[in-house]
Amino acid sequence: MFPTIERPTSIDVARCAGVSQSTVSLVLSGKAPGRVSEATAERVRECARELGYRPNVAAQALRLGASRAVALLVPDMTNPFFSRVLRGAQRAAAEAGYIVILVDTQNDRHWESQSFEALRAGPVDGYLLFEVTAPEALGPDENVVLMETEAPGRPSVRFDGEAGAAAAFDHLVELGHARIGHLAAAFRALTFEDREKARRRVLSAAGIDPEAQPRVMTPITIEDARVNGLRLLDERPTAVFCDDDVIAAGLYLAARDRGVRIPDDVSVVGFDDMDFARVLSPPLTTVALDAELLGSRSFELLEQRMSGRRTRKRVVLPAELLVRGSTAKCRAGT
Amino acid sequence: MFPTIERPTSIDVARCAGVSQSTVSLVLSGKAPGRVSEATAERVRECARELGYRPNVAAQALRLGASRAVALLVPDMTNPFFSRVLRGAQRAAAEAGYIVILVDTQNDRHWESQSFEALRAGPVDGYLLFEVTAPEALGPDENVVLMETEAPGRPSVRFDGEAGAAAAFDHLVELGHARIGHLAAAFRALTFEDREKARRRVLSAAGIDPEAQPRVMTPITIEDARVNGLRLLDERPTAVFCDDDVIAAGLYLAARDRGVRIPDDVSVVGFDDMDFARVLSPPLTTVALDAELLGSRSFELLEQRMSGRRTRKRVVLPAELLVRGSTAKCRAGT
DNA sequence: GTATGAGCATACTACGTATGACTACCCCGG
DNA sequence: CCGGGGTAGTCATACGTAGTATGCTCATAC
Q: Which candidate in A85, A114, A253, A279 is best for mutational testing of the B interface (most B CBs within 10 A)?
């Protein structure tokens, strides 16, 4: 219909090499040894190269019932953290001959389920789901790996966010802070629950009442975080733990608005160690996560499932506190 | 082979509705009017809904020779600019019933051509190429839209980067700067050539010799830009134009290292208006580009081509200078 | 001279869909 | 009673590949 480029098929290759299409298929899919003579095989390969033959993936997918593509669903591609996840997944996938189809759900339930439906139509063999709420919609036999969340019977990969957050709060406590605010992500996810859990645990252990600490929720956006950060600063914390570097960036703006100095008047800790964290003034103390590793490990797990192994492994990756310039000894007494 | 989920086919739907597979296809692809009675059509739709039927895209792709997927090649997904491009493209594509397959070439020629080859195998109907060097490899009939670059006979979409850069240099000149450095991207692309062109033009017009101004090239990475920024600062410019916000971020670090104050000692201008630009201290003056628009307009052009129109339109999008806190009157004299 | 088997290659089919060609039926006018 | 024309739907096929069942050829063994 459209003047699409005519690409050579295995039949063209067969004609060129003077053999049948079957033989071509045999040779090119590596099943030749013992079935086709080496001389013929070489001739076929030669022709294929010459004609620039590439198997038609649609036909392959139809025939094999598998497309060698996986979907990666992330909530917000504007957040560079996910670019790194994608990069890791893409690298691992490419090595295994897979393509990654990225779906940016933009934190939009409607859009999420819509694109999800589109994907279920068959173009992908498996799913890498980042904190997505859909897993119940999938049959228990689907090839799925959960990222940064967990569900019964599903393999998953996540960071030890609780340990990371605990390290951050420990750090603040050691610096002598006793009024520690929490600028929290208004996003229901296991990750953030972990951080909250760590907060309660560490503060309680230090004799600080977690309930009495100022705590404000905010959408994960610089501007939202700025606005909500202003409210938090009004409660006069001497330190603030932010659920995310983006949120921390918003808090920096709020501090500037209020004339509050970091770290002199208030210490700030972020989470994720995004590229811009060290560029901020002062450089942001944050919990570093290897996002690329998350992506690649997740794909590896998915691949295991796709090749038939019914793994349910739950991988936990380390999270490490990076102390930079945004945290300092508490001077509330002075 | 693998226990893949068994999905219902159009034959199942046909059986359920008591009609032939052809009829199902007719109804579901909207070709029913005049061929199938409304009563039957409704029955078919009912069955399809009940069985949860979704057409097999692999089979469709094979039959139609089109996959309703397009590829978007970008050089570095870690750069949030491209996330926004993707978002725009994805939105426009979804509206037209297309899927966007993202390929992050990571500025790696080898990887670029490799993934490119993988794509040419047939899974996509068209390409959105961002400053990619491959266009010669594609036949003149391929469905391609170039982003931020141009080539004879190809449709393209780009920003008026020259106007944007000119506005930035005008701004610096008006502030009284006469020694204006250029921290330039070490990346051969039309975009950056445009900026360089604007620099020469504006400076010459202002009676400043462009050749005499300090100019340093740097890879587009915060750390690289920091190192090269140090070298540039050693030449004592009173203002610096950075080819990119990421580069500007690196220059901020360099300035901090050297104890050079922004904008008091040196004014800084960036390019792109990334999210973090306004969070920097001081907020970065930069040239704003609507990346999402770039993505959506590009897809629209591509769609025109894919539906047979042989358009070669060249779209130019505006670029606008955003003056914030990183630029100030030159105080070199004091 | 024929049975045996290895080695090599081919014929054919299925995967699920879209669609042009075709048929069966009914109604109506002549 | 027949032909024309519209309506409602079916048949058959092709898309390109993978792989199973099959066939052919030749050499060796009895």
A: A279
Cβ pairs A/B, distance under 8 A: 155
β-partners of residue A240 are A181, A268
Whether the per-residue pLDDT at B289 is higher than 50: the answer is yes
Å from A211 to nearest chain B CA?
31
In chain B, how many H helices and how many E strands? Answer: 11, 12
At a CB cut-off of 8 Å and minimum separation 6, what does B140 contact? Answer: B153
Q: Which two tokens stand for residue A288?
A: 């570093």
**What's the pLDDT tens digit per position in B157-189?**
999 999 999 999 999 999 999 999 999 999 888
- The integer distance in angstroms from the CA atom of A71 to the C1' atom of D21 is 37
Who among residues 62-81 of A has its Cβ near strand D, under 7 Å?
Answer: 62-64
CB B69 within 8 A of CB B90: no
Q: Could you give the angle at the alpha carbon of A45 between the alpha carbons of A40 and A48, nearest 5°?
A: 125
Distance B11 CA to C22 C1' (A): 21
pTM here? Answer: 0.83
Contact B118 A101 (CB under 8 A): no
Residue B35 CA and nucleotide D13 C1' are separated, in Å, by 20
* B328 SS3 class: coil
Calpha distance A28→A41 (Å, rounded): 8
Q: Do A86 and B106 touch (CB under 8 A)?
A: no
Q: Among A156-170, B94-108, B161-175, B307-321, which stretch is predicted with the lowest mean pLDDT?
A: B94-108
Mean pLDDT by 10 residues, chain A (334 residues): 64 92 90 83 91 90 89 85 91 88 78 67 81 64 88 91 97 97 92 96 97 96 94 97 96 94 97 90 95 96 86 92 96 68
The alpha-carbon gap from A154 to the nearest alpha carbon of chain B, in Å, equals 16
Are A291 and A247 spatial neighbours (Cβ–Cβ below 8 Å)? no
Interval B202-211 mean pLDDT: 97
Determine the residue among B2, B73, B221, B242 to mutate to test chain A binding: the one whose Cβ has the most chain A Cβ atoms within 10 Å: B2
Residue B95 has pLDDT above 70, yes or no: yes
Inter-chain CB proximity B56 and A122 less than 8 Å: yes
**Interatomic CA–C1' length for residue A223 and nucleotide D25, angstroms:** 79
